[in-house]
Amino acid sequence: MYPFRNNVCNLTWAVVKYHRFSTSALYSSQAKVNYYSHLQVGSEATQNEIKASYYRLSKLYHPDKNKGSEAAAKKFREITAAYEVLGNIRTRKLYDRGLANTEIIYETPTGAATHDDSKENGSAFNKTRQAKKPSKVYKGHTEQYNFDEWTRAHYSASFSKINESRQQREVKERMETFSKEEQRSFSLMDPLMFVIVSIVMIQIFFTSDYDDATLVDRRKLAQAEAAKKEAQKTPLENPDVP
Predict the structure, then answer these.
(1) Domain-located, residue 79
(2) Is residue 27 part of a domain?
(3) Which residue stretches does the UniProt record annotate as biased composition, category Basic and acidic residues (predicted)?
(4) Is 3 part of a structural domain of the chain?
(5) What residues have CB less than 8 Å from 41, skipping those under 6 apart?
(6) How far is CA 78 from CA 62, 82, 115, 137, in A?
């Protein structure tokens, strides 16, 4: 009744079977790697123990502390790849099962498949693809390591010290710049103040002399006028004259 829907369902099932076959070979090769030995823990270790061991080993074999050592870089990649699998509960369970029984078991579609069946197959196919992505190549620095809590705690003190030293250096530079500007302003102000003081002193000196000369002239003028008046008096007015 729905030939197109049946064809889509059959095609989806064929793709899923092919994907299961191709990924089983990939994960069977990965299952041979003993990730527990890379992290130096047993298969019964808790997630906290795995995480603590990863922190310890990643700090020990980090490329920044072992520059030029290819063996340390290889060891760091191994423990990082192991933690990518064992650090997550879901991927660890898949690894513990040997990745043979981790694939989703689908029932072979019989007869006419319904629309809901095709939707379930499609969603299961997408989940299978997401669960079976090949591991990416690690080159020493991984996203999980760079943004992990241990890394932030390990480098936060260094970053704070760098910021403090940078702020202190900026404050020191501003103080030196301010001191230089003050010295420059004082050096320019000294001759200017000398000129101003000189002008004021000259004005005071000449003004004082001018006032003294004016006062003497006024006294002389008053004496001359008094003598003139005495000379103009009549003999009656001036009894001293015979």
Answers:
(1) yes
(2) no
(3) 223-232
(4) no
(5) 49, 50, 53
(6) 12, 6, 45, 10
Amino acid (1-letter code) at residue 112: A
Through-space distance between the first and last CA atoms of the chain, rounded to whole angstroms: 172
Short-list 1, 7, 3, 84, CA closest to 38: 84
CATH number at residue 85: 1.10.287.110
What is the tally of structural domains in the chain?
Answer: 2
Helix, strand, or coil (residue 133): coil
More reliable by pLDDT, 7 or 219: 219
| Domain-embedded: residue 51 | yes
Encode pLDDT of 168-204 as tens digits: 888 888 888 877 877 777 666 667 777 888 888 787 7
CA nearest to 103, candidates 173, 28, 4, 2 = 28
For 90-126, how does the pLDDT look when each residue is reduced to its tens digit (9 = 90+)?
A: 999 999 988 534 343 333 344 444 444 444 444 554 5
pLDDT at 75 over 50: yes
Give CA 238 to chain center in angstroms. Answer: 110
Q: Are both 93 and 155 inside the same structural domain? A: no
Residue type present at position 166: R
Tell me the whole-structure pTM to 2 decimals: 0.33
- Residues 83 and 145: their CA atoms lie apart, in Å, by 10
For residue 182, give both structure tokens. Answer: 């003050």
Give the pair of three-digit tokens for residue 171.
């404050």
What is the torsional sign of CA 40, 46, 47, 53? Answer: negative
Alpha helices in the chain (DSSP H): 3-31, 35-38, 47-60, 70-86, 89-96, 115-131, 143-146, 149-232
